[in-house]
Amino acid sequence: MQNSATPTHCPYCALQCGMNLTPAADGTVEVSERVDFPVNRGALCGKGRTAPAVLSSRVRLTSPLVRSEGTLVPASWDEALDRIAGALSRTRAEHGPDAVGVFGGGGLTNEKAYSLGKFARVVLGTSQIDYNGRFCMSSAAAAGIKAFGLDRGLPFPLEDIPKTGCVILVGSNLAETMPPSLRFLTELKDNGGKLVVVDPRRTRTAEQADLHLAPRPGTDLALALGLLHLVIAEGRTDEEYIAERTTGWEDARAAAMAHWPEYVERITGVSVPQLRQAVRMFCEPEHAMVLTARGPEQQSKGTDTVGAWINLCLATGRAGRPLSGYGCLTGQGNGQGGREHGQKADQLPGYRKLTDPEARRHVAEVWGVDPDSLPGPGRSAYELLDALGTDIRSLLLMGSNPVVSAPRAAHIEERLKSLDFLAVCDVVLSETAALADVVLPVTQWAEETGTTTNLEGRVLLRRQAVTPPAGVRSDLEVMHELAARLGGERALEKGFPTDPEEVFEELRRASAGGPADYSGITYRRLAEENGVFWPCPAPAEHPGDGPTTQGSAAGRPAVGGDAGGVMGDPARASGDPEGVTGEVRDVTGDPAGATGVAQDATGDTARVRDGVRDTSAAAGVRDGVRDVTGDPAGATGDTEGLASGLRDVTGAAEDCEDAVFDALPDDPARDDGFSQAVPAGVHPGTPRLFLDRFATEDGRARFVPVAHRAIAEEPDDEYPLLLTTGRVVAQYQSGAQTRRVDELNAAAPSPFVELHPRLAARLGASEGDPVAVVSRRGRAVAPARITTAIRPDTVFMPFHWPGEGRANTLTNPALDPTSRMPEFKACAVRVEAVRP
């Protein structure tokens, strides 16, 4: 690769922040700001800034490994691939195709996720495929499909958030999980909007709220129902909207009325006055949003919980209107795209149902196989892992580390060990890879080109910036070689190309006409337009494209608004950077850490080093985006904070709400460098969904009646407390990558147990003392972190670490009956002091 800056995207969370990568003379890779991408406008958190550290051969795999006499030793690619093919063939011959399992990941590109689902069903013939994204957004996805007929995390761009009147943020700590996105909430408040945060802990995000509601873990469903009850009782429903755009209101209304405020207070611990205050904040503005994340979703009733928050939006006329509605904050880097194109147990590309005969016919035609040859739905993620060593004898795993990330993790670790054969494709030797019989070293984000789909539904092109080390191959190459070995030339004829653009072209055809229609998206468009929002059908006459059902004859998507859901301006798929040219381009998750020198999550004040920064601008960018911090004043060296430049990210006046989607002659989104005008006859994509109709047969949203029920495991005398889990700013997911970055480990070196001072006093524990958290599934030990930011009846552990501090040793695999989501967020525990 040439030593020039390559515009690309971060490998971590679903923001998919833009960045530039430049190979340096010493072999390292430098990160510099990429101000043309509207999601982060150049700002990066510590994880993004240090992401190239994992490219180093010092920490990543560079050779295949095979197990010999109990030890993993280097091997050639041919030996490793032959071993995998031989083992999978034997398992299929001896036990049948469903004895082979496939487990994918929400970090795989769209091309990889698509190919993995195809490989499992066409080459292996197995129904046993799912992925770790099941543990992230599946409850919100299920609820969205029930209510709206479609699942896309956010039905509007992030740029809409600052222009709404109120946001209720449920179970999300954006300041630590997605630091660059916190600026949208800061701008919301600068514009006079209100922020309500629902979280049992007073997190860095909750500290920014106008109102913080701290319910008992697992009671979010009752809380939402209590708010809806008050909306009804106070006459705040939008009856005209309900009559014109919804069905099922009477049953949902009756269910909510059974949850009166005092009853909800007893369940949740949130006082009646706070409930009434939240309703006023949400209902009084013209526009309002509810955004959920893992807090309400990772429960055994997560689908119903999200459904209750959607009902609140529907009853108040919020969903499907500009600057309003419900959205899910997708977590993993390609958590959105990863659940759209076939690596889920029940799914075919384009977000089609595997049980739909027409979907099977369409995809089978693209793949060149008989529809009847495609297996039916298989087990969900936890159920698949739980069946290892019994029904499932061999497993091919890509991009996941369930030894750390799965619930009841000690049990899952034992199931992995009981397999006849385990093959893992990964960048590093994760805790799961260390158990494998064969480990294949594969390329990672900066070493390959591919597409991802961020939390907005914006499909992005992540470009290769560096050459991978010798001995490393891509996952696409792995599937190509295994297909050749397992199915011969006939399998290769079905198409397992190694070129990602070629894979994407096939994905376009397979997705055409499906809910997640990518058929009008090309690599060239992604490069020129800085991403395209799905659905984006191709013109019906386009050669090679299948039928499309999302748009009318005029090309207007049924689930969007005028001209792609942007109310008459197809170019406005992104915000205005307000001429950002400065140099502060780092994010601190610490509200106190905002300074003229950007400080990241680790506390390191060294600036991002690059060769392309514009150093002519004064320190602390004026009249534009300066830095994203937890500080509501946005202090970055500009004494006016964010107020001078971020009142309205489109450049329109503060009172722009009524005109925000108008095509103004001087609209800066037309020439801001974020995107290019879309040619006539080409679908512009759909930044905003549901403005005309919902994606149901009759175009109406569905109220789903739900009622409060207890979590699967309530506290008792033996286990009197509740455990909830989450993330810290300097680590990511199972930590397989971030724990290999020195700078991040310096900031967050180990797990901890967060507990209230009253609980600590009863235990006789002081700050830093080791304490044991015990559930019915196991025991974890970590230092105590004592804080009043948590409820006295609750303890918190981050889940990034293996070993004795592994939080997921404790968590409950009780499953949501619809989404099959495990109950990560609430289980009964006791805490014990660990004596010397």
UniProtKB/TrEMBL annotation:
PROSITE patterns xrefs: 4FE4S_MOW_BIS_MGD
Domain of life: Bacteria
A Pfam family hit: Molydop_binding
Spans annotated as Disordered: 540-579, 624-643
UniProt entry keywords in alphabetical sequence: 4Fe-4S, Iron, Iron-sulfur, Metal-binding
Domain 4Fe-4S Mo/W bis-MGD-type: 3-59
Gene3D superfamilies: 2.40.40.20, 3.40.50.740, ADC-like domains (2.20.25.90), Dimethylsulfoxide Reductase, domain 2 (3.40.228.10)
PANTHER family the UniProt entry points to: NADH-QUINONE OXIDOREDUCTASE SUBUNIT G (PTHR43105:SF10), RESPIRATORY NITRATE REDUCTASE (PTHR43105)
Entry protein name: Molybdopterin oxidoreductase family protein
The organism's taxonomic lineage, starting at the top: Bacteria, Bacillati, Actinomycetota, Actinomycetes, Kitasatosporales
